[in-house]
Amino acid sequence: MRSPLLLVENLKKYFEIKRGLFGKKLYLKAVDGVNLTLARGEAVAIVGESGCGKTTLGKTILRLYEPTDGRIIFDGRDITHLGWKDLKWYRRETGLVQQDPFGALPPFMIVKRILEEPLIIHGIKSEKEREERVHKALERVKLTPVEDFINKYPHMLSGGQQQRLVIARATILEPKLIVADEPVSMLDASVRIEILRLLQDLQQKYNLSIIYITHDLSTTKYFSEKIHIMYAAHIVEKAETREILNNPLHPYTKALLNVIPDPDPANRLVIRNVPAGEPPNLISPPAGCRFNPRCPNFIEGICNLKEPPMIEVNKGHYVKCWLYG
Amino acid sequence: MGGEHLNVKDLTMYYRTMRGEVKAVDNISFSLSKGETVAIIGESGCGKSSLAKSIIRLLPRNVSVYKGIILFDGINLMDLDEEEFTRKIRWNKITYVPQAALNSLNPVIKVGEQMIEPLLLTRKMSKKETLEKAAKTLRTVGISESFINCYPFELSGGMRQRVIIAMALLTNPELMILDEPTSSLDILTQASIMNLLKSIKREMDISMVFITHDISLSSEIADKIAVMYAGQIVEFNIAEKFYSDPMHPYSQKLMESVPTLRTDKDLVFIPGSPPSLLNPPKGCRFADRCPFTFEKCSGDPPTINLNGDFYVKCWLYEKE
């Protein structure tokens, strides 16, 4: 068994949106009771559509947001409500890879300066040491020869190179955990694999744990060991990657898998089954199971009344659905 | 038969920038029969959107070269002057669904009002008639006609995309050009839009030029595939052939880089990046990333005809 690095218990993140008349508060419940464990050196995926709360979950785990409720234990330490000063330690242990590499890089800084920034903030005063670490970071992400890149501005790099630079920055302090939020969705097909390979490489070589946030189930197969399916602020199914892909249980997971095309011209002749409707808004989600208004297996009197529990159907395969309870 | 509906021959469109001339569309040929769909596949910056805009003549202001032949229903569109083109073709027989269509609706005009604009401009119809037509078209794309009085922000992303498609259907076009019509949509929404396009294709016999970067998605609709690289079409093939046996090394590499859900394979990526369209290299533009490069590749690759109008542009297939 690998030792656990991260333990997330019943994590909630609500955003207050406005006060109604007579001071009634409304909340957007972006993350609503999520449990998650991550071992050292493990890569897990969180898969969901836009607006399901997956990015908020990632950012709350990194403590870029203050959790509303629940607990986050990292490396044996409760970091849920860590103060600003102590968070600096946590920042060093974690890193974020954003979706849009160009937007994530300051356009007026050269590569060297971009990579030095975290080193300066974390008190590495020796210029020589900083330089060494910048070189090492660039070599790690294969932006070599280093001299060719170190004095360039972000706009002089291709999309794939920019994302490598973002990864270099996220890993320069040698963190234990990386949250990669749609790291390849803005990149071209041929570059995507290159970036995912690089992340996988770092994971294996440096025993890095990675939370891979994506809407694209087909890439998870090549990258993560476990998949968590997220719908309307809840995790609705989790299992090993192969198990989910071969034996999906939740009707939402089934719907997602059913509509993803593989390159095959026979697809032209198929009209795909798509559940009607749209994901609920997270201010007043439906009672019971949140997927119930769209679910093809809806059971009146059960699904629309009580929230289903997380049920272990096969070993390690959990699903939040009344069909299995 | 054989590509009579749309026949693009040697279409070229360059535009001038401060840094030089961008060869966005460079000598492109392909053809399409009535009711067929061709997918133009390529990575970002390969010129596929420029190709779409060149067909419907939405050119950048700094255009420097625009030539070639676009035969549509036997008429060369390049011969039409601007006024004739606007009246007869654009938003009439040929319609265009732009990329980032979600932001192409005017936020301060009601859905119905902006839908009928092309009809008011090109047809002698009263406003009431056009609104009725708009309502009917909304129903065909699966939106309740009551939305005609809504503003775009009241609609979800998938519904806005349906409105745009309804707009493109309103004039009973013969050809639709769709530029990444699902690129900013969620996976389930994307699938329902593809369902809609399939039924439009089947029931209305409309030809489509479908532009995408996604090889899997294009298999959902395309009868023919044109692969674009650095401003040129390097392979034009029938879909069945293309997906089972892609010919151009770039097509092969692209196919190998696509993750699949239902089959197991090792993914590979294409090292390097595409050349700039400012100064594309001489000879084959893919040569410096191609695993099969040999001496001849430094010369312009020949167009090797496959059966029919199909072709591949590559030295490997040259017969002695």
Radius of gyration of chain A: 21 Å
CATH architecture group name of one domain in chain B:
3-Layer(aba) Sandwich
Extended strand count of chain B = 12
Which class of one domain in chain B in CATH terms?
Answer: Alpha Beta
Placed side by side, the strands forming the largest sheet of chain B appear as 6-7-8-3-9-10-12-11
- Coarse morphology of chain B: globular
CATH topology of one domain in chain B: Rossmann fold
Quaternary form? heterodimer
CATH superfamily placement of one domain in chain B: P-loop containing nucleotide triphosphate hydrolases
Largest sheet of chain A, in brief, is:
8 strands, mixed
Q: Bin the strand percentage of chain A.
A: 15-25%
* Mean of all residue-level pLDDT scores of chain B: 91
Name some characteristics of this structure.
heterodimer; A: 325 residues; alpha/beta; eight-stranded mixed beta sheet; four-stranded antiparallel beta sheet; 11 helices; globular; B: 320 residues; Rossmann fold; 10 helices; 12 strands
Tell me about this structure.
The complex is a heterodimer of chains A (325) and B (320). Chain A is built from eleven helices and twelve strands. By secondary structure, chain A is an alpha/beta fold. In chain A, the strands form two sheets. Chain A has an eight-stranded mixed beta sheet, with helices on both faces. In chain A, helix 8 (189-206) links the parallel strand 7 and strand 8 (209-214). The longest helix of chain A has 18 residues, at 189-206. Chain A is globular, with a radius of gyration of 21 Å. The mean pLDDT of chain A is 93. Chain B has a domain at 6-82 and 175-182 and 209-317: Rossmann fold (3-Layer(aba) Sandwich), CATH 3.40.50.300. Chain B has an eight-stranded mixed beta sheet with strand order 6-7-8-3-9-10-12-11, sandwiched between helices. A four-stranded antiparallel beta sheet of chain B has the order 2-1-4-5, covered by helices on one side. Chain B is globular and about 65 Å long. The chains are: A alpha/beta (325), B alpha/beta (320). Chains A and B meet through helix 8, helix 9 and helix 11 of A and helix 7, helix 8, helix 9 and helix 10 of B.
